[in-house]
Amino acid sequence: TSATSVTLPYQCTTYSSINEMSRLSNYSSCCYCDSSYNGWYRFIGASGSQLITFPVNTGFCGTNAPGWWNGTHPSTVGATANGNFCANYAGYICNPSYSIASVLATNCSGFYVYYLVPLACPGIYPRYCTM
Fold first, then answer.
1. Least confident of 28-32, 43-47, 114-118
2. How many Å apart are CA 69 and CA 18, to the nearest integer?
3. Which of 32, 42, 71, 123 gives a 20 to 30 Å CA spacing to 98?
4. Average pLDDT of every residue of the chain
5. How many Å apart are CA 14 and CA 83, to the nearest integer?
């Protein structure tokens, strides 16, 4: 038998790290907004390891508009999947006024990295939430 190696895409080695406990889906506090992220990021340490893929209630993960990734994490090492950012706000689990961002996720063999875009903060505080 022979081993097959996979060449990981550049984003698996060229990313910024986010380590904030307040991002966790069960963390109750308010109010931070993700208006400055733009590029590839990995969630580490206190922030958990990946974006949540389900809505959580307002007031959790450090915001009044908790965000979740409406997508499926790629199971193949080196693969990238596309999904949408959804913000739970004003009775909508994917509020159309604040849920327009496309988010990419790449499987980096043991962890995921995400291409995050700046979120608009017009009086509410959409935020990428983790687990």
1. 28-32
2. 16
3. 42
4. 93
5. 21
